[in-house]
């Protein structure tokens, strides 16, 4: 078959050696090491954040999980994984800011949904209940509010307008919004995943 007759490439080679099809992802090609590596290198807010390091999606994911745990101390380890992995598809598709996602529409959202479903299948997680999905969304918006004010140059009023009102958080959770070096974000994301995954398997 000539190159002109071949279908366009829709897969990405992972450092683990896996070849992940972005349009029809298989859970067999999902590896947590690839997710941690990729998310630690994807910048939130298109890199427009203060500080000597980018604020990565890996660190945002840890912040969302920390907020979820603070707001819902009775959350199970499996629910903690849902918080932690809510943006997992971004390890291959990147972090697209909300206004651009809205402009792109359903095509991007479909890719994201299929990737997240493959991630859940890989780690034995059910689709979240509507209540858990709402909890994750709320934690994500709380995180976005604090990131916007602390890192991305938003005023408190702007952040409240776009992400909802501020929610008081304890210092250890807020500290998760201070940007770390890439290697630290990768290691801490992976360590938290392993802790939650082990707890999930025990319950």
From TrEMBL:
It comes from Methylobacterium aerolatum. This is 5'-deoxynucleotidase YfbR-like HD superfamily hydrolase. The lineage of its organism: Bacteria, Pseudomonadati, Pseudomonadota, Alphaproteobacteria, Hyphomicrobiales. It comes from the Bacteria.
């Amino acid at each position: 078959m000539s190159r002109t007759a071949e279908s366009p490439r829709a897969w990405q080679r992972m450092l683990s050696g896996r070849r992940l099809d972005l349009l029809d992802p298989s859970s067999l090609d999902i590896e947590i090491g690839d997710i941690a590596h990729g998310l630690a290198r994807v910048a939130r807010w298109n890199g427009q954040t203060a500080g000597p390091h980018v604020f990565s999606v890996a660190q945002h994911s840890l912040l969302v999980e920390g907020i979820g745990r603070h707001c819902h101390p009775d959350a199970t380890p499996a629910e903690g994984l849902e918080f932690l992995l809510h943006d997992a598809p971004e390890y291959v598709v990147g972090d697209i800011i909300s206004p651009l996602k809205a402009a792109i529409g359903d095509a991007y959202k479909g890719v994201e949904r299929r990737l997240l479903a493959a991630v859940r299948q890989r780690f034995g997680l059910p689709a979240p209940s509507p209540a858990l999905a709402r909890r994750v969304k709320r934690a994500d918006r709380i995180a976005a509010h604090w990131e916007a004010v602390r890192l991305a140059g938003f005023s408190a009023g702007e952040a409240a307008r776009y992400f909802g009102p501020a929610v008081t958080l304890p210092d250890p959770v807020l500290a998760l919004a201070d940007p770390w070096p890439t290697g630290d974000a990768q290691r801490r994301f992976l360590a938290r995943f392993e802790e939650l995954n082990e707890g999930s398997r025990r319950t």
